[in-house]
Amino acid sequence: MRSERSERSPERVEGRVEGRVERYKVAVLTISDKCSKGQREDKSGAAVQELLKQVPWEVVKYEIIPDEPDMIKERLIYYSDNLKVGLVLTNGGTGFTARDLTPEATREVIEREVPGIPEAMRVECLKITKRAMLSRAIAGIRGRTLIINLPGSTKGAKESLEVILDTLPHGLDMILEKEH
Question: Which residue has the higher pLDDT, 10 or 26?
Fold first, then answer.
């Protein structure tokens, strides 16, 4: 006999997280000067959205903005406080250039940091490339929203999200104080 708890637990079946009824709302925010000006195609934002098809969540907002800290903060606050999304995934702005300020902007709007998420992404991605140690991504909670920074490269964003995707439903359930 299966317990009530195990019936709610997600199981990995054919690349999809099964057993979830909840359709969390998700916002995907690409942060790139070049993409925002139309000088480059946003392949990493597309890759993130494609991976999200593995879970029963709905991408309710997708935007591309330049590497402007005030604009990043404004969008993160809007997604959390007004759209009330459960998850915000940013991609871009986590590197070493002077304009890479996504982690700093994120830190200014979150209430509690969740260091284990970017730590797990870096640890697992280091098994693929040593460049993973160069990511300055952070994650944290604002209200009832989990905000996670992903790298801007398509490969880095995809690999990082793959590391954490199966665990995110449990984290989102905890934020909403659902039985977990």
Answer: 26
For residue 175, give the nearest of 139, 127, 129, 142 by alpha carbon: 142
Centre a 10 Å sphere on the Cβ of residue 13 and count the other Cβ atoms it contains. Answer: 9
Measured between alpha carbons, how far is 87 from 96 in angstroms, rounded to an integer? 25
- Residues in a beta bridge with 18: 11
Hey, what CATH class is 23-175 in?
A: alpha beta
Q: Report the alpha-carbon distance of residue 39 to residue 27 in Å, rounded.
A: 23
SS3 67: coil
- Coil, helix or strand for 43? helix
pTM above 0.85, yes or no: yes
Please name the residues in contact with 125: beta carbons below 8 A apart, sequence gap of 6 or more: 132, 135, 156, 159, 160, 163
Return the closest-CA partner of residue 29 out of 172, 155, 161, 150. Answer: 150
For range 82-110, the mean pLDDT: 97
The helix/strand count (H/E) of the chain reads as 8, 8
